[in-house]
Amino acid sequence: MVVDKKSFRVHAQLQTLQLRIRTGPDLRFFVLFSHQHFSIARFYHATMKPTIALAALVGVQGISGLSVPSNVRSFYNRVKPTTCTGTEKLKGGFYDQEGGSAQWSYCRKAFADSGKHAIYLHGSGSKLANMDIDCDGDLSNPVDGRCGSSRDTQGETRWKAEVQAASGRRIPDLNANIHPYVVFGNERNDGGATFDPRSVGIKPLSVMAAVCGDKMFYGVWGDTNGDDGPPLVGEASLSLATACFGTSMNGNNGHDEADVLYIAFPGDDAVPGSSANWGASNFQQFEDSITALGNKLVARLS
């Protein structure tokens, strides 16, 4: 076996990895990845393709997200124990799953020292939000087929036109396999609960933060919940869910525990515009392009 080392493309915060191995027709190899090294061991004899997509293995080993900054962790610990009330409760009556109860709300927390605020989701008691999977948008590059199990995929996201404008029409829409985005806001015409984040200053395609366990990732506000079921909250693109919870995530299997904190930031300065790598070919490329802005936004949290 000859391994072309130039074909290894490794990044410190890796979302996907491809290994191109030139080998004979009757060998297959199982590749193990860790943050500091990877090893190759013969797994079994079988026909293999020249290119092995290792996104699944990386997900199992754990994608390296940003460490949760101390101020973000403090914010998480402060808002998690109790639901929002009074002026901090913007709108209630939402569900985190079909067949559940309408105990979720959009909440606002102001920062006394900056005059700004953040918007987040909270349920009853100490529940935050779960992470259902959204596969809407451009699926011309399906990556690994995990969106194929989705039963309610839409052919476009809410901000399709804005994506085309921001990208200079390099892409037709967000791709759930590539772009980390959050489904935020509820639009419907059947009398169910609605909430438009724009009413409190949140801009389409603005950068949001998602705190999942001991990791934090950035995404954009990329879609809204429609009226094809109860008014649900707690949903993100497949790529963001994979970064948080690994490749067990698919179009019909998300993260059920209500422990994810989604944070949205108001203002035009939260929108990356053309500085984001909308034409990225994988999660990490896009994530890298919005990280500096994300860091600036979460620094406001107190």
Description:
- With 302 residues, this protein is α+β, with helices and mostly antiparallel strands.
- It contains 5 helices and 15 strands.
- It has helices spanning 55-61, 70-79, 160-166, 238-245, 283-298; strands at 2-3, 18-22, 28-33, 38-44, 51-53, 66-67, 89-94, 104-110, 117-122, 129-134, 181-186, 207-212, 215-225, 235-237, 255-264.
- Strands 10-14-11-13-12-15 form a 6-stranded mixed barrel. The chain has a 3-stranded antiparallel β-sheet with strand order 1-2-5, with no helix packed on it.
- Strand 3 (28-33) and strand 4 form a beta hairpin.
- The longest helix has 16 residues, at 283-298.
- It is globular and about 45 Å long.
- The protein starts with a strand and ends with a helix.
- 41% of the residues are buried.
- The model is unreliable at 1-62 (pLDDT under 50).
Strand order of the largest sheet: 10-14-11-13-12-15
Which parts are unreliable, with pLDDT below 50 for 5 consecutive residues or more?
Answer: 1-62
- Secondary structure: helix percent: 10-25%
Sheet bearing the most strands, described? 6 strands, mixed, barrel
Structural class by sheet pairing and helices:
alpha+beta
What pattern of helices and strands is seen along the backbone? EEEEEHEHEEEEHEEEEHEH
- Shape call: globular
Number of helical stretches of at least 4 residues: 5
Strand content: 25-35%
Mean pLDDT: 81
Strand elements, count: 15
First-residue to last-residue Cα separation: 55 Å
What radius of gyration results from the CA coordinates?
20 Å
